[in-house]
Structures are given as C-alpha cells and as structure tokens.
UniProtKB/TrEMBL annotation, chain A:
Further remark: In eukaryotes there are cytoplasmic, mitochondrial and chloroplastic isozymes.
Superkingdom, natural source: Eukaryota
PANTHER family tied to this protein: ASPARTATE AMINOTRANSFERASE
Keywords, ordered alphabetically: Amino-acid biosynthesis, Aminotransferase, Cytoplasm, Pyridoxal phosphate, Transferase
Enzyme kind, highest EC tier: transferase
UniProt family annotation: Belongs to the class-I pyridoxal-phosphate-dependent aminotransferase family.
Name this polypeptide is given: Aspartate aminotransferase
Provenance organism: Sander lucioperca (Pike-perch)
Pfam families found in the cross-reference section: Aminotran_1_2
TrEMBL record, chain B:
Subcellular location: Mitochondrion matrix
Keywords recorded for this protein, A-Z: Aminotransferase, Mitochondrion, Pyridoxal phosphate, Signal, Transferase
Gene, per the UniProt record: got2b
Record's protein name: Aspartate aminotransferase
Species name: Sander lucioperca (Pike-perch)
Span of domain Aminotransferase class I/classII large: 50-416
Length: 397, 421
C-alpha cells in the first residue's frame, strides 16, 4: 500500500494548459494570447539588447565566481531596486528606512512578504487577518497568501464588467467596510484610496510587476507607490523584473520594505532572513547581477529605459490598432477600454462561450476570463484576431 | 489657565501614544544572529595575517580562493554562444536538467527511471529541495514526525518546522569515538513509530563527516523496512565525498533496490561549485508512473505559490555539463580533484599533529569524509584556538577542511596541538 495512494491528481495550472493546447494545435493561423510574456512583431521572445550586452560583460569578467549571495541577496541589486521603485531622491531612502529582500521573481517577493505578514503583522501568527485581493486578480495571489497561512482571503471590487472599467465606487466601499488592519493587495491606486486606508489602518502591499512596461515611463508607473510613501505609509512592494527586463526565467525580483525608521527596518529584515533561510537559503545570482549592473550604470540604465519604451510602445500601438479595427468592423459594443486599460493585458469583455468559440473555431487562445495578452498581437495577425473577435461577438451570445 | 494646561497634556499624551504605535513592526523581535555567519564576520574583522576561516561551507583551492570549475566556464561559453531566449521554465524546471539529475543519482540503468516511476523536479538548490519535500510531506503525509540524525545540518530543523512538521532525533554521532554510534542508531531507529519520516545523509554527513559503512547501511535499511519508515535522503555532496559519484550514491541506490520508495534532495552547489546559481533537484520514487503523475501535479501546486518556476541559468549549466561527454568527463576529473585535495589535507593534518608531538588519537580526521570534520575539540579549546591563533570555526568543534591549504595546515596542526596537549 503506497503512502501516496490517496494523493489526488491536481488540475493543471490554467494558463500553462492554454499554452500547451496552443502548442499542439496545428492550425497555421493560430494565435496565443495567453501567457504574459512579451513578443516582438514577429511573435518572437525578445532578449533586451542591454541584457545581452551586460551578460557579455559578466561572462568576460574573470573576477566573478558562483559563490553564495547573502541571504537577503545582492546588496547593489537591492538598493538599486529601492531607487527604481521609490525614485533616486526618495526621502524615505535618505532616512535609511527602506530595505529590500532579493527574491525569486515577483512570486517569490509576494511569498516572502506574505509569510512575514502572517508571522508578525497584526499580532504574532495571526492567520485570521483578512487579506483582500482584487476581483479579478492574478490567480496565484490567492494561493500565495493561502499557503503562507492566511485563512481569510476576500475579493475587493475592481473590475466593472458592465462598463468594462474600474469599479471605483465598489472599491472605495470595500475599503470603508474592511476590518481594521486588513491587508490590501494593490495593483494601482489613487489619493482617495490612500485616504481611506490611512484612516482605517489598512496595510498596503503593492504588486509591481510592470513598472515601465505599462506607460513606457518608470516614474509614471510608480506614481501610486511613491504617493503612498510620501503620505507616510509603511508598506511592502513586490517588484518583478521578469517583464520589464525580459528576464522571465532568471527569477529576479525584490521585496521592498518601507518602514517608519531604520530601527524597525532592521528588526524586520532580520526576520525576513529567517524566512528566506528555510525557503531557498539565498537567491540566484545571475539575474540580479544583470539587473544590478544595468541599474547602477548611467549609460546602461538609459539604454534599458529605451528598451522598455520599445516594448511599451509596441503594446500601445497594438491597443490602438485593435480598437480601430474593431470599430471599423462595426463590432457591437464599446471598445474604448482596450486603449484605456494599461499594461500587458486587456480584459476584452468576451464571455466564456465567446472565448470557447475563439479557441475552438478560430484557434485564438485566450483565458476563460476574456483576458488577452496584447503582446501576442502583431501587425501580421491583428486583422485575423479583430475579425475573430467580431465573429465571436456577433455569432455567440 | 489650568484648563489650557490640561488640554495640552492630553494632546501631548495622545501624540506620544500615536508615535509608539505608529510602526506596524514595533512588536517584531530581532532575529538571532546566524552562528556560522558570526564566525565569518569575526574572521573578517581579525587583522592577524595567519588567520584561518574554517567555518565556510564552500570549497576553496590550495590558495584559499573560490574555485570556478573549468567545465562550468566551458559550459557557460557553449550556452552564451547559443543565444537562447529567457522564456519561463515549466514549474518543474528544465527537462534536460531533471532527467540527467535523476540519472546521476540513481544510475543511468536504474529500473526506476526505465519504468518512469520517479518524479524529479528542479529546485532552488538543496534548501529549496528539502523545503518542497517538507511541504509535500506536511500536506500529504502529516501528522507524522521527522527523525533527524543527532546532530544534523542546522537548517534541517527550521525547514521542517516552517513546513509544519515536528522534529525528533535518532542517535548518530558518538563523541567518545568521534565516529558513528551504530548501535545507538539501530536501537533508536527500531523504536521509531511506523510511517514516520527518517532523514538520512547519503554521504559526507554534515556536520560530522561520519558516514556508515556499506554493511552498516544494509542493517539500517533492514530495520527501516521493518519499521515501515519513509526514507528522505539528503545528498548534497555526491562526488565530493569519495571523489567517485557512483560510490557516493551507493546508499541511495541500495535502498531503492531494497524496495524503499524514497524521497531525495540533491544539490549541485558543492560538486559543481554552482553555489549562488541555486541548482538542485527533488525526487519522489513512486509505485508506478501513474502515481508519479499524481505526485508531480501536487508538487507543481506547491511550487507555484512560492516562486512560480525555477531559475534557468544554473540548471542549464549543469545540464550542459552532464549531457556533453567531454564536459562530463572533465567534471568528474575536477570533482575527483576537489575531493582529493580535501583527503590530502586530512592526511597532512594528522601527520602534522603527530609531528607536533600530539599523543591523542586523531584517526577520526582521516576516517571522516567530505567537507567537514568534527575534531572533537571542546568549546573552551575552540575559544582558545580562535583567540590565540585566529583560527575561526564553530563552537561544536566542526572545521571545514575546504579552508585548509598546504600553506596553513602546519599552522593549524600547531594550534590544535597547543590547545589539546
């Protein structure tokens, strides 16, 4: 009798299953609008020119070895990450109250932050603290906080399906009604939200996976975070360099911690070390070296910003073109949300039946939620995709 | 006037209260300093030119420098030339890596691999592998306890604890002989409750360097089978212990042959010198391929909310080395070289102690194997060695042989003799 006989077969992770199905599809017109990775106009992965340059520099540097990094990661990487998130001249950085934990991608940063909060926030080991994630949110957010031990994970209003935009009234209402000290996982926020959160003692945990990638401008994309910091919040930021550096498989991320003062910061970081030590001991060095070298050298930093803008601009162009084409086709409904939304993804508003039609009949792969990755669109396939959406909307209710 | 003063006092009190409570982290205790890190910190501060750092758990060459293997540099060049993309790996990691990782541990012709009844996932080096294993056990095999050898690697305990499991111990190290307490181990193991998890170090036990002999492993296997215990092997030093990868994996392969469906953690930090790249593997040997598929699906569910998918760089280097014949031969040579240097340093230390006139029995220094040596020094002797000779090591008397070179072994022998005569 095997000890594993009762282990059930777990369902595959949806987004990876989508890509697997796409790979098996032999239809020449197939399009993958699933996984969140950047593609060029030839639908190819893109290793940033600045990354190639820095990797060569690293390989040619005979003084570098593969020794362990410190538990909290490469120091130059952590400090540069704080500057990227909060700005070079951030008063919080000058006050020595900003720290960082190098982590395995954005996921790793979220997980370490979640584990810390479960151990030390709102009492000791208080697994009952409510955690609010947006509806909808990245599906892994739920699992991260659950596996970190939190028992009460709740949605807050975010997406207004009817108007295909932000449900601000719903969001503000949820903030007003949330129990004190609840944790809010935020993608982007405004002054009103900050006001309520301060008043109601709610904890802000920012997930920053697309800085620079959304608008093409680092400062603009970090506005909300910097505003919160200037308003005196203590907060966490889970940063990912997967998309904006194209370093997906190197697992480069950082958990930035903004505390009230350096004394609170140092105790917090000492406890972060304990969490890291039993999870992965110390983080992988390759990706952090690439990012650190780039961010800390003015010419390379400028080159990187240019590469990021290239990606962001292509996405903006695709948004523009998709909207125009749908409008030209006279596709029923409003399509302004495509250009109003920002970043890699767009919530099309297609319902599950229409999504199924898109996949089965048109071989255009997207998530059941109607989410598409704009990066999967190119000047070569955009007409086909627009026509497919038109057919889905007109033929399937 | 009185009214105004009272108002101000109240106002100040409220303000002070707000200040004290205003950091979320006011109640966060300072974490205890890491004992091994403390050794390195103190070493760094020491200005004695003869100082030695014997706390470090990383290989050093005979000049005391970190050693990047040639096969690693060659593999890196091959990889760079291919100009590959950086797309996410699968949750379970790089296929070429996990396949060759399992083959390395079990042997290419192992029936387990042929029948596909193992699942091997890429992990964040040894720690990440142990943690995934611990999380998996906690979820699907709880509430059983985990039995560690006494002593074991310091991080084993918090890893299993953080995964929600309770730790117990079985006797292992005999301080009176600085060797294996075989009788004590068998005795304790025979009393472990059925279905408990037993952790075994496959080779080069950390921290003692004391490994069971093959005949002893056989008896351990028998008693573990009788008690129906779930075996979890930690193999962080394959190749690094004896210099021979098959010899170092003997216990793992024997147990599988004997029918134990084991869990196995592998690390490539030491044997490939890939420390900071975080390369490791976690294997579950199942009854059949169907079971392996179920277990695999659950491992993915565990991994995804920790780090989504593993880092590519180190795994690609390791896979390139393992799967390219001349790089693999070069690697085997270099691993042999590292192990040999350690063995030579052990011999020279014992010879040096004899030369100094020590009358103690230092045989355990050459009997023990791998990176570490449990000298048998007592805490007061360790303190003297550090204070008077600037030799840095952990209080339990453990030294990392990797920090010993032909240039300083004489000095070390002199110091050890001085504090033990």
């Amino acid at each position: 009798m095997s000890i594993f006989s009762d282990v059930p077969l777990a369902p595959p992770v949806a987004v990876f299953k989508l890509t697997a199905d796409f790979r098996e599809d032999s239809n020449p017109q197939k399009v993958n609008l699933g996984v969140g990775a950047y593609r060029t106009d030839d639908c190819q992965p893109w290793v940033l020119p600045v990354v190639k340059k820095v990797e060569r520099m690293i390989v040619e540097d005979g003084s570098l070895n593969h020794e362990y990094l410190p538990i909290l990661g490469l120091p130059e990487f952590r400090s540069a990450s704080a500057k990227v998130a909060l700005g070079e001249d951030s008063p919080a950085i000058k006050d020595n109250r900003v720290g960082g934990v190098q982590a395995l991608g954005g996921t790793g940063a979220l997980r370490i932050g979640a584990e810390f909060l479960r151990r030390w926030y709102n009492g000791v080991n208080n697994t009952a603290t409510p955690v609010y994630v947006s509806a909808p949110t990245w599906e892994n957010h739920n699992s991260v906080f659950t596996d970190a031990g939190f028992k009460d994970i709740r949605p807050y209003h975010y997406w207004d399906a009817a108007n295909r935009g932000l449900d601000l009234a719903g969001l503000l209402d949820d903030l007003e009604k949330a129990p004190e000290h609840s944790i809010f996982l935020l993608h982007a926020c405004w002054k009103k939200i900050a006001e309520i959160m301060k008043r109601r003692n709610l904890f802000a945990f920012f997930d920053s996976a697309y800085q620079g990638f959304a608008s093409g401008n680092l400062e603009k994309d970090a506005w909300a975070i910097r505003y919160f910091v200037s308003e005196g919040f203590e907060l966490f930021i889970a940063q990912s360099y997967s998309k904006n550096f194209g370093l997906y498989n190197e697992r480069v991320g950082n958990l930035t911690v903004v505390a009230q003062d350096s004394e609170n910061l140092s105790r917090t970081l000492s406890q972060m070390e304990k969490i890291v030590r039993t999870t992965w001991s110390n983080p992988p060095s390759q990706g952090a070296r690439i990012v650190s070298k780039t961010l800390n050298c003015p010419e390379l930093f400028a080159e990187w910003k240019g590469n990021v803008k290239t990606m962001a601009d292509r996405v903006l162009l695709m948004r523009d073109q998709l909207k125009s084409k749908l409008q030209d086709l006279g596709t029923p409904g409003t399509w302004d949300h495509i250009t109003q939304q920002i970043g890699m993804f767009s919530f099309t508003g297609l319902n599950p039946k229409q999504v199924e039609y898109m996949i089965k009949e048109k071989h255009v792969y997207l998530m059941a939620s109607g989410r598409i990755n704009m990066c999967g669109l190119t000047t070569k396939n955009i007409d086909y995709v627009a026509q497919s959406i038109h057919d889905a909307v007109t033929k399937v209710q | 006037l009185f009214f105004i003063i009272v108002f101000h006092v109240i106002h100040i009190t409220i303000h002070l209260t707000w200040c004290f409570c205003s950091s979320w982290w006011g109640g966060v205790q300072m974490g205890p300093p890491d004992p091994i890190l403390g050794v390195s910190e103190a070493y760094k501060r020491d200005t004695n030119p003869k100082k030695m750092n014997l706390g470090v758990g990383a290989y050093r060459d005979d000049q005391g420098k970190p050693f990047v293997l040639s096969c690693v540099r060659k593999a890196e060049a091959v990889i760079t030339a291919k100009q590959m993309d950086k797309e996410y790996l699968a949750i379970g990691g790089l296929g070429e890596f996990t396949k060759s990782c399992a083959q390395l541990a079990l042997g290419n012709d192992n029936e387990v691999l042929k029948s596909g009844r193992n699942i091997t996932v890429q992990t964040i080096s040894g720690t990440g592998s142990l943690r995934i294993g611990a999380n998996f056990l906690s979820r699907f095999h709880g509430p059983r306890d985990v039995y560690l050898p006494k002593p074991s690697w310091g991080n084993h305990t918090p890893i299993f604890r953080d995964a929600g499991m309770q730790l117990k111990a079985y006797r292992y190290y005999d301080p009176s002989t600085c060797g294996f307490d075989f009788k004590g181990a068998l005795d304790d193991i025979s009393k472990i409750p059925e279905q408990s998890v037993i952790m075994l170090h496959a080779c080069a036990h950390n921290p003692t360097g004391v490994d069971p002999r093959p005949e002893q492993w056989k008896e351990i296997s028998d008693i573990v089978k009788k008690r129906n215990l779930l075996v979890f092997f930690d193999m962080a030093y394959q190749g690094f212990a004896s210099g021979d990868i098959d010899r170092d994996a003997w216990a793992v392969r024997y147990f599988i042959e004997q029918g134990h469906n084991i869990l196995l953690s592998q690390s490539f930090a030491k044997n490939m010198g890939l420390y900071g790249e975080r390369v490791g593997g976690f294997t579950v040997v199942c009854n059949d391929a169907e079971e392996a598929k179920r277990v695999e699906s659950q491992l993915k569910i565990l991994i995804r909310p920790i780090y989504s998918n593993p880092p590519m760089n180190g795994a690609r280097i390791a896979a390139t080395i393992l799967n390219t014949p001349d790089l693999r031969s070069l690697w085997l040579e270099e691993v042999h070289g590292m192990a040999n240097r350690i063995i030579k340093m052990r011999e020279e230390l014992v010879a040096g102690l004899k030369k100094e006139g020590s009358t103690h029995n230092w045989q355990h220094v050459t009997d023990q194997i791998g990176m570490f040596c449990f000298t048998g020094l007592k805490p007061e002797q360790v303190e003297r060695l550090t204070k008077e000779f600037s030799v840095y090591m952990t209080k339990d008397g453990r030294i990392s042989m990797a920090g010993v070179t032909s240039g300083n072994v004489g000095y070390l022998a002199n110091g050890i003799h001085a504090v033990t005569k």
